[in-house]
Each structure stands twice: as structure tokens, then as C-alpha cells.
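Protein entry
_____________
===
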Amino acid sequence: MTIPETNNGSAAIPLSGRHDFEAIARWVKPGTRVLDLGCGDGSLLKHLTEIRGVRGYGVDIDVENIVACIGNGVNVIQGDLESGLSGFEDGSFDYVILSQTLQAMKHTEGIVREMLRVGREGIVSFPNFGFWRHRIQILLGHMPVTKNLPYQWFDTPNVHLCTIDDFEAFCAQHGVRILQRMVMSNGDAVSRLPNLLGTLAVYRIESRR
């Protein structure tokens, strides 16, 4: 399968070092409806509102994040993503975003299915567990601790870490079409050996059904 790549160049990414935010912002069309799942303090949705004029909501379970979203002027709903998105009708949004939250979900299949039910397209980003530094640490007998995976094994919020190859196999097996892919390392695009050299992957996806 040939996957379209997006050339990110080497420009610095604003927004607190979240390199996936820039790729997401480039893919989201102006004036569209966006749902940001696990939205944190609302920084991404605020950015998309300012530069793309989007309309939408964030969803988060943490009370401090809810308060931060309100402070950022972001429409937010408190909710547990593990319970699904039953409060939203089919096709309610143009894009549903899951930015570096996928690996913390217990029910991966369920949340991806719900994303593509509620939105015409989904945008997913996650740290690549196949990055070469992670592999070396495993070979040395330790769970990886890096800039992109900063937690120790005993305090990590991550439940289902995966590699780029794992995610693409998941998509093929679950009726998900990959529309675009961006693989990065320190904000720079990675086109050669992405599963080995990339630290962060961002995908734009839709349902095949």
C-alpha cells in the first residue's frame, strides 16, 4: 500500500513542542467542525480555531483540564472516552482528533470505530514504539524511557503502545483507510525507514465502509 506523505520541512513547531499539532493544523480545512478527544488544556482546538476558524468541542475527563479549556475559551465536555461517544450523532463532525491519546486507551478498536462513526475523517497521533532508541533499551533489558515516552514502567498512563507497522496492520484489519501519514523525529519529517527512525506518527484516516 502506498501512503501519501506530507513534507513538513524542518520549521520549528510552536505550541509547547507538540510537533503533531502542526501536521494536524495543515490537514484540517478552514471552517470545519472538529471534535478533539482527550483535549487536555484545549491548546490544539484553540490553535485550530484561531488559524483555521474551526467550530467544535473538546472532550476530557480531567477536571483541571476542563478548567484550563474554559480559560482558553474552548468549548469542552467532561467525559470518559472509554465509555464511547454515544452523545454524538453519526457524522456530527468533519474531523475527530485523537492526539497522543490512543496509546492510553484500553479499548483501541472501540474508540477508533467511534471516531469514524462521529466524524467523516479521523486524525490520530502516537509515539512510535519501534523507534531505534526504544529497541536498544529493550535489548538492554529495560522498558524504554525517552523524550517521547517519558514515563517509567510503573507510572505510565500508556496501556497499548504500538509501532508504525502495528498501527497500519490494525487499520488494514479493521476497515480503516489511511489517507495521509506524517512521521517525525524532533519535528523533522522522516521518509526513510520511518518505523525505525521516527519518534512520532500522525495519520489522517477514514472508514472503508
Summary: The chain has one domain: 19-129+160-207. Helices lie at 19-27, 43-52, 63-71, 108-118, 132-139, 164-173, 194-197. The CA atoms of residues 116 and 207 lie 6 Å apart.
